[in-house]
Amino acid sequence: MNSGTKPERCAWVPPDDALYIAYHDDEWGRPVYDDRVLFEFLVLEGAQAGLSWRTVLGRRDGYRAAFADFDPSVVASYGEDDVARIVADPGVIRHEQKIRSAISNAACFLQLAAEHGSYATWLWGWVDGTPLVHRPATVEDIPAQTELSQAISRDLKRRGFRFVGPTIMYAYLQAVGVVDDHTATCFRSSAADGVPS
């Protein structure tokens, strides 16, 4: 990429939104293996249901404060006082069922991690440890859900997780890099494919 020229990004990224640009450029589609970060995105994607991702990104710091920097062992211990505290917190999306699901999901997350050695081991096992790289021509070519997200959703629901439907889970897989859906013309796809940008 020549200095002074703007990189081409996936079309869903507003060209004048620094927060969205940073998220797209530095996080979206990059493989995540850290359980704490994987739990963070599980909470945030569940919170996003029915809302815009920009709404969630704008409250990310508020979520970090309210949910103990996304430490699932702390969140799993939250009780009714914590629910009331978070519901009253303007720094998060104050949807009680989503807040309660984040807390109950933390306990499920810890159980799943204990069974498999880590949550990351379980998650990446679905793709044999290798990201699924797609290069859609346009954002319209990106599906809302896939057989993989449907299967993961079913397994999580069986384990007691909530707000983990197949569409939410596909967005989650994209966010944590299990799936790389940067469009073919996006500068991040070239960088990810090893082409100098």
- Termini gap: 5 Å
Query: Helix/strand-derived class?
Result: mainly alpha
Stretches with pLDDT under 50, minimum 5 residues: none
Q: Tell me the total number of β-strands.
A: 2
Whole-angstrom Rg: 17 Å
Strand order of the largest sheet: 1-2
Helix content range of the residues, please? 40-55%
Largest sheet entry: 2 strands, parallel
**How much strand content do the residues show?**
under 5%
Q: What would you say about this model in short?
A:
The chain is an all-alpha fold and 197 residues long.
Describe this structure in words.
- There is one protein chain.
- The protein starts with 17 loop residues before the first helix and ends in a 5-residue tail after the last helix.
- It has 197 residues and is an all-alpha fold.
- A two-stranded parallel ribbon has the order 1-2.
- The chain contains eleven helices and two strands; from the N terminus they run ααααααααβααβα.
Any descriptors?
two-stranded parallel sheet; globular; mainly alpha; 52% helix; 197 residues
Topology readout:
Elements (H helix, E strand, L loop, with lengths): L17 H9 L8 H14 L4 H5 L2 H7 L5 H4 L4 H8 L8 H21 L2 H7 L6 E2 L13 H12 L7 H10 L3 E2 L6 H6 L5
Parallel strand pairs: 1-2
